[in-house]
UniProtKB/TrEMBL annotation:
Ubl conjugation listed as a keyword: no
InterPro entries reported in the protein's UniProt record: PEX11, PEX11C_met
Organism: Platysternon megacephalum (big-headed turtle)
Keywords: Membrane, Peroxisome, Transmembrane, Transmembrane helix
Broad class of the protein's primary localization: membrane
Name of the protein this chain belongs to: Tigger transposable element-derived protein 4-like
Keyword Endoplasmic reticulum appears in the UniProt entry: no
Single GO biological process annotation from the record: peroxisome fission
Length: 294
């Protein structure tokens, strides 16, 4: 019973810390290596696979939406929290490079960013069911007109689904709920996130190519109406590509040193890339809400 109580006690302690209560740390583990300490601070704002936007923001090649059952989406962190998280990291990273007074303010903003990220990580503990419901609803993409778009979407959903348990295990290991090496699980979750982003970028490029072909085939009275609809979808896909590229740059940075530019971004650059992605997400969410998208 004592062995079983320890993990539960650790879990309760961690959850209470996000409610603003004092956290009691016993037998603190030895500090992580320098690169991991840097990674934990700068990784603090990593978002869910879809970059902080809701799954129903994904459109099919025909412009249709795939919805997630409302009760399963209640725990989803809002894009506003993600934007604030990255914004604090951007401002904190810039101020930390200046005078001692501004540097102190920068450290405080980075601390706020880290706490917001911890909050989002805990909220994502409950996102597996929402993602599973979305993946089951999408299935093998029978509604998609293009086979390539369909399988890119299926693979992206699979990467997203695998991302969550990996992150949960890494979080539980860092919180001393389970005994395992969290580093490999953080790396695996980041790899799945990066894979999802790459697949999303390729998918959007494929959809843009299809839209271009459709526009060429439009003639007569349907040309003007099709032009407006396709322009809106092209804008959405271009924004999604820019957002995913910004997130992908951070995802590579959070991988172990030695891979491309991994570990090379200063905190302000991580915050800048995340802020760009988050603001695009806020804009797309507001546009979707204004157009009546579910």
């Amino acid at each position: 019973m004592a062995a079983a109580a320890d993990p539960l006690s650790s879990l309760v302690s961690v959850l209470e810390s996000y409610r603003g209560r004092d956290r009691v740390v016993r037998d603190a583990p030895p500090p992580p290596p320098p690169w991991r300490r840097r990674g934990l601070r700068e990784r603090c704002c990593r978002g869910p696979p879809w970059g902080g936007r809701v799954p129903e923001g994904r459109r099919g090649a025909d412009g249709g939406h795939w919805a997630v059952p409302w009760p399963l989406s209640l725990t989803r962190p809002s894009p506003q929290i993600r934007t604030l998280c990255y914004g604090c990291q951007l401002a904190g990273g810039v101020l930390a490079r200046k005078s001692p007074t501004e540097s102190e303010m920068g450290r405080r903003l980075l601390a706020v960013s880290a706490q917001l990220s911890h909050c989002r990580t805990v909220l994502r503990l409950f996102d597996d069911l929402a993602m599973l419901a979305y993946s089951r609803q999408y299935g093998l993409g029978a509604k998609e007109e293009d086979t390539i778009v369909r399988w890119l979407s299926v693979l992206s959903n699979l990467a997203d689904q695998l991302y969550y348990p990996c992150e949960h295990v890494a979080w539980a290991a860092d919180a001393d709920v389970i005994r395992t090496n969290s580093h490999k699980w953080w790396t695996l979750s980041t790899a799945f996130w990066g894979l999802s982003l790459v697949l999303g970028i390729v998918r959007s490029l494929r959809i843009l190519l299809q839209l271009r072909r459709k526009l060429r085939n439009c003639t007569g009275e349907s040309l003007e109406q099709s032009q407006k609809e396709m322009d809106a979808q092209v804008k959405s896909e271009v924004l999604s590509i820019l957002s995913s590229m910004a997130d992908l740059s951070n995802a590579v940075h959070w991988l172990p040193p030695g891979f491309l530019w991994a570990g090379q971004f200063p905190p302000w650059l991580v915050g800048l890339m995340g802020t760009i992605s988050s603001l695009i997400g806020v804009y797309q969410t507001s546009v979707g809400a204004g157009s009546g998208a579910v």
